[in-house]
């Protein structure tokens, strides 16, 4: 009897311990990331951003309800991420909600909120048991902080050739970046300021209206004629020089140079030649003149040189050509145009990682030069290995389309078209200050800065047209960045590339590094899943019960032998 009482007491003690462990686990979230790709480990920059808010943050995630396993994985990954950031900042509160559930009044109110926040569902078709079901899915989260609200799209767009698993995996990879970026914007003390230069025949404002609109979602945008200011203020977070056709004056280049010296950020979008299809159409054979932007010397000093050439690449987009007449109307056909590159980003840098192809128009090659400055150079975009260059003066004609290209002639290898420079630059005006520049410095009461702040960044791209939007000259309507009017196709990579570059330049906390996080996709064999479904169900459901029963039987047998003395001779 005494032994039986001790047994019950011991069992109650074990149950009590298990109960207490569960109670404690409900109050304290603890996890250890044992994955090889560290998918559950937050970057230091993300932790820094998440820990800053000192007031309540409420996050509502519209990923609840019934949906396929892929979206369940997105939901569980989002939940795990939110649990991780709540460990960093206990001001964070979150909840998951089924946007298709609730009363009629609740559904109506939610619909109005979604319309105001520009939240649109995706219609998903999937098998629910034995029948096909169509259901709207809202893969969004809304962050509320003080009197601000920010919408996070959790699902990435499907690129050409992607299946659902790849899209969902990419969405999981970018969860940390999206939430960290949202926290950064919603808690910012002031919006960032982006300045476009004018006065040197840059791209027209209506050609950059889509890019401006994209930037204005989170930042302030301005336009300035550099002749109208004495210096570029340090409150400007980024300057964009977009496609000047005229030379920038020495005085204005000096203003940009000294802005870079104090840690300024500049994006240079520079065409080397005045090449266009319209000119070839008019003249038949056309030699595009060189464009003198006046930037060659200062870029050389910073460590890059845009070569006087045009890149030709077998990986390119197409243009239409008349191939005959039918019924008095010209018949056209698309032909590959080797000067319009279709670039597949291969770098793992966060600016270009996971973006689609970028369509560029008559780009030139960029050489990187060795300098004594501690400047890091990163190649962001390159032509394919099936490339060649055509030096200026280059003869352009549609005659090359009449014969198939010889791959043996496209063997110059990859050519750089976009380069990122980061670090402390030496001034391009060191030991060459003119009296005019000295007078300028005296008039504004500042000293010349020969060596730059290491926080400075520059990006040089040898094509400006990739970032512009097409404009209908009759109606004034504009197309999205990356729309190719000849192929009637949309190169999403164009907008993503310039948008990511701008965000990288403005990212003082370096959260964009989390875009490089990679979660390896380990796909299951769908055929084997179907064939072995019953077997694995039996293993997972029946086998644990059998093992438990076997263990219980052995334990009972052992106790009988021990306490009844059956093992005594």
Task: Could you tell me the CATH topology label of the largest domain.
Answer: Rossmann fold
Q: Examine the secondary-structure arrangement and name the CATH architecture of the largest domain.
A: 3-Layer(aba) Sandwich
Query: Please, how many helices?
Result: 14
**Unreliable sequence segments:** none
Radius of gyration: 31 Å
Give the overall form.
globular
Counting helices, strands and paired strands, the structural category is alpha+beta
Strand content: 15-25%
The largest pleated sheet is described as: 7 strands, mixed
| CATH structural class of the largest domain | Alpha Beta
Distance between the amino and carboxyl termini: 25 Å
Major beta sheet, strand line-up: 8-7-9-10-22-21-18
What is the helical fraction, as a range of percent? 25-40%
- Total number of domains: 4
Total beta strands: 24
- Oligomeric status of the shown chains? single chain
| pLDDT averaged over residues | 86
Structure in words:
There is one protein chain. With 569 residues, this protein is of the alpha+beta class. The protein has four domains: 1-30; 35-186, 3-Layer(aba) Sandwich (Glutaredoxin); 193-516, Rossmann fold; 526-564. The chain is 33% helix and 23% strand. The chain has 14 helices and 24 strands. It has helices at residues 2-27, 44-51, 69-88, 104-116, 164-173, 175-186, 209-216, 250-261, 277-283, 296-302, 435-444, 492-506, 526-531, 533-564; strands at residues 57-61, 92-96, 122-128, 131-137, 140-145, 148-153, 193-198, 220-225, 238-242, 265-269, 285-286, 304-306, 309-313, 316-326, 329-343, 358-361, 366-368, 375-382, 387-391, 396-397, 416-423, 457-461, 483-484, 489-490. It has a seven-stranded mixed beta sheet with strand order 8-7-9-10-22-21-18, sandwiched between helices. It is globular, with a radius of gyration of 31 Å. The model has no long low-confidence stretch (mean pLDDT 86).
């Amino acid at each position: 009897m005494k032994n039986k009482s001790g047994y019950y007491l011991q069992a109650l003690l074990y149950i009590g311990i298990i109960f207490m462990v569960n109670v404690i686990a409900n109050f304290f979230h603890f996890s250890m990331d044992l994955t090889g790709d560290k998918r559950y480990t937050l970057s230091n920059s993300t932790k820094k951003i998440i820990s800053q808010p000192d007031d309540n943050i409420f996050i509502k995630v519209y990923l609840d309800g019934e949906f396929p396993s892929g979206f369940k994985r997105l939901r569980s990954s989002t939940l795990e991420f939110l649990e991780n950031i709540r460990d960093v900042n206990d001001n964070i509160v979150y909840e998951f909600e089924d946007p298709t559930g609730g009363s009629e009044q609740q559904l109506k109110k939610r619909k109005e909120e979604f319309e105001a926040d520009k939240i649109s569902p995706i219609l998903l078709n999937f098998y629910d048991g034995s029948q096909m079901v169509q259901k709207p899915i809202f893969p969004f989260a809304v962050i509320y902080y003080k009197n601000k609200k920010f919408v996070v799209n959790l699902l990435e767009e499907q690129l050409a050739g992607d299946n659902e698993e790849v899209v969902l995996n990419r969405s999981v990879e970018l969860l940390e970046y999206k939430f960290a970026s949202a926290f950064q914007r919603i808690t910012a003390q002031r919006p960032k300021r982006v300045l476009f230069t004018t006065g040197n025949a840059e791209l027209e404002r209506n050609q950059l209206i889509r890019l401006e609109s994209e930037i204005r979602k989170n930042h302030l945008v301005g336009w300035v004629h550099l002749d109208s200011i004495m210096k570029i203020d340090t409150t400007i977070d980024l300057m964009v020089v977009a496609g000047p056709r005229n030379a920038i004056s020495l005085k204005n280049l000096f203003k940009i140079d000294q802005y870079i010296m104090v840690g300024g950020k500049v994006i240079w979008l520079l065409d080397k030649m005045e090449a266009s299809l319209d000119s070839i159409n008019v003249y038949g054979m056309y030699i595009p003149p060189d464009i003198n932007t006046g930037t060659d010397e200062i870029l050389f000093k910073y460590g890059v040189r845009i070569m006087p050439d045009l890149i030709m690449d077998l990986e390119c987009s197409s243009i239409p050509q008349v191939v005959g007449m039918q019924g008095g109307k010209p018949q056209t056909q698309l032909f590959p145009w080797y000067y319009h590159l279709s670039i597949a980003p291969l770098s793992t840098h966060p600016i270009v990682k996971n973006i689609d192809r970028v369509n560029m128009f008559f780009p030139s090659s960029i050489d990187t030069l060795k300098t004594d400055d501690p400047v890091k150079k990163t190649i962001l975009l390159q032509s394919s290995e099936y490339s060649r260059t055509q030096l200026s003066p280059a003869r352009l004609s549609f005659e090359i389309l009449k014969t198939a290209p010889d791959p043996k002639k496209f063997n110059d290898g990859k050519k750089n078209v976009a380069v990122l420079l980061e670090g402390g630059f030496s001034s391009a005006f060191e030991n060459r200050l003119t009296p005019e520049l000295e007078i300028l410095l005296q008039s504004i009461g500042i000293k010349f800065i020969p060596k730059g702040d290491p926080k400075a960044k520059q990006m040089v791209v040898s094509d400006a047209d990739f970032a512009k939007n097409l404009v209908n000259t009759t109606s004034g309507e504009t197309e999205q960045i990356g729309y190719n009017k000849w192929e009637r196709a949309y190169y999403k990579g164009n907008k993503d590339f310039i948008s990511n570059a701008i965000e990288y330049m403005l990212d003082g906390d370096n959260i964009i590094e989390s875009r490089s996080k990679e979660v390896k996709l380990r796909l299951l064999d769908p055929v084997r899943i179907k064939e072995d479904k019953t077997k694995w169900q039996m293993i997972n459901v029946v086998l644990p019960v059998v093992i438990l029963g076997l263990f219980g039987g052995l334990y009972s047998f052992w106790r009988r032998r021990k306490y009844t003395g059956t093992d005594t001779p």
